[in-house]
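Researcher: Go.
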Amino acid sequence: MITPPRLAHCVFRTNQLQMLIDWYCKLLGARVNFRNDKIAFLTNDEEHHRIALVALEPYAPRAQGVTVGFYHAAFAYANLGEMLQSYAELKAQDIVPYRCINHGPTLSFYYRDPDGNEIEIQVDTLPDAVATNAWMQGDAFARNPIGVLVVPEELIARRAAGEPDSSLLRRADS
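Model: Structure:
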């Protein structure tokens, strides 16, 4: 079977179009490629859009609690320095993650947009897909496939003190 080589975009329905445009532009450093009063297409790279926001009609509110269905979308940084700098800049704008985890294959910060959609911001912790796949098939991941909580400020302080990124990216229980 021929498989698609990449995920192109995510689309969210909203009753708060401008609020979500502003939030995603801050979170992702995105720009608006097109918008009108019913839809917006945002991108943070060369793609025509990575996020589409649709406000075609008044939508019913999100169900309360944890339900089945789509959980989150993830966006990756090239390196830890960029991710931690982004974290600090977002925190200064009162955009803070609700959970930060070192999964082993990724270091991930989880955010909720104003509508409650969850977005993961991550950086790979291993040098390539071969190493990542091997790690995921190992004992540490089998024992704990979710990972361990981390505190971004501690990572920032350790990095400022000269600890190498390779050490900061290593999961504490592995």
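Model: The mean pLDDT is 96.
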